[in-house]
């Protein structure tokens, strides 16, 4: 790791001021940033730690939505009675992230701000049409993810919370990369309160996306077979050591059908 | 040792070493911190193959905290790293041994090849300085695949090895094999790849080197499986230092699996540099560095043919293998795909004639050397895959075809040099089939089919040669070292015992197993015996731990020292009891005059040896301390049957292991719990190779594509089933413990059993061939392309 200045922010405003002053990087749970720094792949002059702002970790029900603080840890979400009682699919998703150590450090806000192509949270944000609340504004889930490791966040903008509308049914099915155990393909399926269906896919492409063909099929018939019967287009999907685009396209339909079965079950 | 003298032998004594390991009290190399210590970092090549036009270290030398920077040009008078085994080609020429510089000179030959050593006050300063080293590379094309490297026009890696060929070696009677094939009723042919593996011990390599001006002596702490061998090779072959002035200590070591047998460049450069900087130097390999610089395993490409008569009797086996050596010859690289591979091709079978030809090629990759099993997993994989295929082709049941060819008369001379002393292959097959409930398989398969799953069962009836080795035979085969072991038993005045062994424990539990042996022979509590290993300053000598040799060879050396202790004890007791030495019996910790109740305890005799007031000083030296060297008269031959049952999900290609049953014959067993643990670990590694692990270099650039756990898939607990394990015993006939060794069997039997199960499951889709690893993606692709898809 290169030498780095460490600052602990006392509030969101304090964090924004520190960013402006130091041009530093925001540190949430550190599960991507610290690893990159240790490998000397990232070299921030200053890191601004949000861990000292307890209100950022709150989880609460707010009207028809579940609002999860950006600094809520995956393990907090996985074990939260509020989450389990409101949108159990989110607790289940959080439970399948990384390993126990990662879940005890990694945060929701850190995950979506990083927008790793194989991260789990972006699928839930897009699949539930969640709203990202930042230090400056509210951003619709569909507008937030811009491409591989790219988001709509400004350089001095800090995610404070994510507001997830409570769906009628939802589930996440993840097919793990055998090596990294990140999502080779992860599919979040949700049937909203208004009956509309959203299917968000992570791991398969450079950034999270909605599988419109499966959404259309599920809108007609919200069944596992309907999802499995969809032929997903492989163009634009990732090919690497662990799977070709064709394999990933196939898995999108398989995982979608498993998510539907789970959601319906 | 008779059944009545069993004592602690055969008991699952809890491991003496576990308390310190589980409570964080283990002392590993990285736990060694010396006063005034500096830190080392090695600059490594980012290219697979490049000429070094120039290296400029001036900026690095001037960087903050830097103590010294060395490159290959500084190491004048330092020789290259040696290879410990000379293989002679079929044309009579010796293998090509191009220089393996401690720091690269002229060229770099694999990504990760070390070319500069930076020593600084802190590791971060050393890394910062390394970034300031300016290397002018002329990048060259790379040869990556072991077969492609031998093709005309392939990039030439070493001037000394034209066509990248290290050797072409052969064993067996080619003419007899050809003649047998001409009479065959059936010939089975197979082309298989044995995938390259990266060892991944939990503790990465590490070293601390220090020079003592007062004694003009060096101390090296290093993660080694064989500190005496490390010292011998480093001092005599590379650095030209007096052997007695170098102390090598391998303290607690967190796993080796072969990768810590070898003399590596890093610690060698550090010992050399420690005198020049006159300060201790520490280096701890980072995980990414381990991927690039540890010696890898396997990497074979093989064509094999099996000739059978109409009844399924094996008539002949013909094998041609291309084996990667990597960029340089690692310490034992040359003997792994030859001596430890081709000699095992008889397996458990009476195949009368076998011919095997092996061509070893240099490639622009990390060196390849022994990895858990070392040649024997590769041999078992060839034999058991081809036997599986032959049975399928001829419509003979898997167990039946094997039984038709089992060796049942011992000793048995194979056509590939080995003499099996004993074995009982029907017994292990019978038991494994019972454990696996083979009879219930058709019903389970039908039930799986209803759920849309493909279910298969696979066998591996393996053999291995362990307890390496009779030094004279090894020497005749090209070994440049002896392969005996040394032991010392030091009885203290109060009757407690310290045992010094040349074997090294890095997870095997020697501190317990060896203590059980000693406690049993001397009739004292296990807690009264401590085992010391891994220090050339305390242990008289040792060849170390590899090839499942520790108990069979190291344990026997201790037994021989114990014989001397007992013999001397009888003399002392005879004097004390005023009896003839020949009338003294030793049993259960007591020296007794035969036929009487007159006796002296072991403790009394020990005390007398050190307080020799009433003692035959005119005939006998005081003290009770004995050493022994043991050179085995033959290899040992552990063998067994592994049966694996899998279920494939055609939707995803996931292979689920439904059950894994292993029945092994390791000879006599000292500690069943430790043996079971060794089997579990070995099987996990075998499953890792078959299902997940695959080292991949880019075929053009030679970049390591699986350079971290993000891309190199290690087996996790969730990938393996709850194993069913059992043992059968035919004691080894030529060592007093009757022990054969158990450390590698799991990694030897499991890949073939698992892949045969996968192939059995895929057979219904019309698939006849599939290479490791059976990852979901590869399985799914194979099913998509299958004839019946």
SSE-based structural type of chain A: alpha+beta
Round the mean pLDDT of chain B to the nearest integer and report it.
Answer: 97
Low-confidence stretches of chain B: none
**How much helical structure, as a percent, in the residues of chain A?**
25-40%
From the N-terminal CA to the C-terminal CA of chain A, the straight-line distance is: 47 Å
Global geometry of chain B = globular
Largest sheet of chain B: 7 strands, mixed
Contiguous low-pLDDT stretches of chain A (5 residues minimum) are none
Number of separate strands of chain B: 28
For the largest sheet of chain A, list the strands in their spatial order: 4-5-10-6-7
Quaternary form: heterodimer
Report the C-alpha radius of gyration of chain B, rounded.
27 Å
Please give the count of helices of chain A: 12
Q: What is the number of E strands of chain A?
A: 14
The end-to-end span of chain B amounts to 60 Å
Anisotropy-based shape of chain A: globular
- Largest interchain contact: A-B, 19 and 24 residues
């Amino acid at each position: 790791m290169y030498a780095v200045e460490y600052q602990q922010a006392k509030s969101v405003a304090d964090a924004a001021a520190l960013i402006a002053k130091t041009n530093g990087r925001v540190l949430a749970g550190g599960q991507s940033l610290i690893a990159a720094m240790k490998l000397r792949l990232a070299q921030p002059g200053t890191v601004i730690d949000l861990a000292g702002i307890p209100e950022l970790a709150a989880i609460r029900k707010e009207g028809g939505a579940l609002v999860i603080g950006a600094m809520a840890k995956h393990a907090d979400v996985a074990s939260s009675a509020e989450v389990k009682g409101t949108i159990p699919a989110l607790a289940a998703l959080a439970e399948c992230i990384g390993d126990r150590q990662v879940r005890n450090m990694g945060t929701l806000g850190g995950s979506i701000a990083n927008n790793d192509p194989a991260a789990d949270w972006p699928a839930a944000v897009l699949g539930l049409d969640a709203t990202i609340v930042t230090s400056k504004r509210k951003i619709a889930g569909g507008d937030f993810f811009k491409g591989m490791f790219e988001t709509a966040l400004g350089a001095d903008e800090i995610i404070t919370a994510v507001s997830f509308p409570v769906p009628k049914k939802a589930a996440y099915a993840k097919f793990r990369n055998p090596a990294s155990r990140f999502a080779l393909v992860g599919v979040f399926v949700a049937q909203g309160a208004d009956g509309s269906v959203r299917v968000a896919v992570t791991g398969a492409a450079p950034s999270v996306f909605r599988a419109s063909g499966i959404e259309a099929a599920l809108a007609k018939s919200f069944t596992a077979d309907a999802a499995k019967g969809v032929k997903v287009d492989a163009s634009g999907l990732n090919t690497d050591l662990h799977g070709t685009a064709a394999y990933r396209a196939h898995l999108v339909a398989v995982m979608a059908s498993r998510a539907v079965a789970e959601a319906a079950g | 040792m008779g059944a009545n003298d069993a004592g602690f032998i055969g008991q699952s004594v809890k491991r003496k070493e576990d308390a310190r390991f589980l409570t964080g009290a283990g002392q590993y190399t990285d736990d060694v911190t010396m006063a005034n210590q500096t830190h080392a970092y090695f600059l490594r090549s980012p290219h697979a193959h490049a000429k070094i036009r120039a290296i400029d270290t001036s900026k690095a030398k001037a960087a903050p905290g830097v103590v010294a920077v060395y490159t290959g040009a500084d190491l004048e008078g330092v020789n290259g790293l040696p290879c410990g085994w000379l293989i002679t080609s079929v044309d009579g020429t010796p293998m090509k041994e191009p220089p393996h510089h401690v720091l690269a000179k002229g060229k770099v030959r694999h990504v990760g090849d070390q070319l500069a050593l930076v020593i600084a006050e802190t590791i971060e300063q050393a890394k910062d300085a390394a970034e300031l080293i300016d290397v002018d590379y002329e990048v060259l094309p790379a040869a990556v695949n072991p077969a492609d490297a031998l093709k005309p026009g392939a990039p030439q890696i070493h001037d000394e090895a034209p066509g990248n060929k290290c050797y072409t070696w052969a064993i067996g009677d080619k003419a007899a094999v050809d003649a047998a094939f001409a009479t065959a009723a059936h010939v089975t042919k197979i082309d298989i790849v044995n995938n390259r593996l990266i060892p991944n011990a939990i503790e990465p390599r590490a070293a601390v080197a220090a020079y003592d001006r007062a004694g003009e002596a060096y101390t090296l702490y290093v993660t080694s499986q064989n500190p005496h061998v490390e010292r011998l090779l480093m001092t005599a072959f590379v650095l030209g230092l007096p052997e007695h002035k170098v102390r090598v200590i391998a303290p607690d070591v967190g796993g080796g699996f072969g990768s810590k047998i070898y003399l590596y460049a890093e610690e060698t450069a550090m010992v050399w540099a420690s005198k020049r900087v006159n300060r201790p130097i520490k280096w701890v390999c980072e995980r990414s560095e381990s991927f690039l610089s540890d010696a890898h395993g396997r990497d074979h490409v093989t064509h094999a043919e099996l000739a059978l008569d109409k009844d399924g009797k094996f008539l002949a086996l013909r094998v041609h293998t291309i084996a990667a050596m990597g960029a340089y010859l690692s310490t034992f690289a040359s003997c792994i795909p030859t001596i430890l591979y081709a000699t095992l091709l008889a397996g458990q079978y009476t195949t009368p004639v076998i011919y095997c030809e092996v061509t070893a090629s240099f490639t622009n990759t990390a060196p390849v050397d022994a990895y858990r099993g070392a040649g024997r997993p590769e041999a078992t994989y060839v034999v058991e895959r081809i036997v599986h295929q032959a049975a399928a082709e001829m419509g003979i049941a898997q167990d039946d075809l094997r039984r038709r060819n089992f060796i049942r008369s011992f000793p048995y001379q194979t056509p590939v040099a080995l003499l099996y002393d004993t074995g009982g292959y029907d017994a292990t097959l019978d038991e494994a089939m019972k454990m696996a409930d083979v009879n219930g398989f058709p019903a389970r398969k039908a039930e799986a089919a209803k759920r849309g799953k493909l279910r298969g069962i696979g066998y591996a009836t393996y053999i291995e040669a362990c307890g390496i080795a009779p030094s004279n035979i090894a020497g005749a085969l090209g070994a440049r070292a002896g392969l005996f072991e040394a032991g010392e038993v030091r009885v203290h005045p109060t009757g407690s015992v310290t045992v010094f062994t040349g074997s090294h424990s890095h997870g095997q539990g020697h501190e317990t197993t060896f203590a059980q042996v000693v406690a049993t022979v001397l009739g004292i509590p296990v807690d009264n015996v401590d085992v010391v290993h891994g220090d050339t300053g305390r242990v008289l000598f040792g060849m170390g731990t590899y090839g499942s040799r520790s108990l069979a060879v190291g344990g026997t050396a201790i037994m021989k020292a114990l014989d001397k202790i007992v013999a001397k004890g009888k003399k002392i007791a005879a004097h004390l009891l005023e009896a003839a030495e020949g009338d003294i019996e030793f049993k259960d910790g007591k020296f007794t005059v035969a036929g009487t109740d007159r006796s002296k305890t072991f403790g009394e005799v020990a005390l007398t040896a050190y307080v020799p007031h009433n003692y035959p000083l005119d005939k006998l030296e005081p003290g009770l301390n004995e050493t022994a060297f043991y050179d085995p008269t033959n290899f040992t031959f552990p063998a067994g049957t592994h049966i694996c049952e899998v279920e494939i999900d055609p939707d995803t290609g996931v292979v689920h292991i439904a059950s894994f049953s292993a029945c092994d014959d390791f000879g006599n067993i000292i500690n069943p719990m430790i043996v079971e643990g060794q089997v579990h670990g070995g099987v996990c590694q075998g499953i890792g190779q078959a299902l997940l692990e695959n080292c991949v270099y880019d075929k053009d650039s030679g970049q390591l594509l699986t350079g971290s756990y993000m891309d190199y898939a290690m087996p996790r607990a969730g990938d393996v089933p709850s194993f069913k394990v059992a043992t059968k015993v035919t004691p080894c006939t030529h060592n007093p413990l009757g022990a054969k060794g158990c450390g590698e069997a799991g990694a030897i039997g499991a890949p073939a059993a698992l892949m045969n199960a996968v192939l059995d499951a895929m057979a219904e889709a019309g698939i006849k061939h599939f290479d490791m690893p059976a990852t979901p993606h590869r399985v799914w692709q194979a099913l998509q392309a299958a004839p019946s898809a």
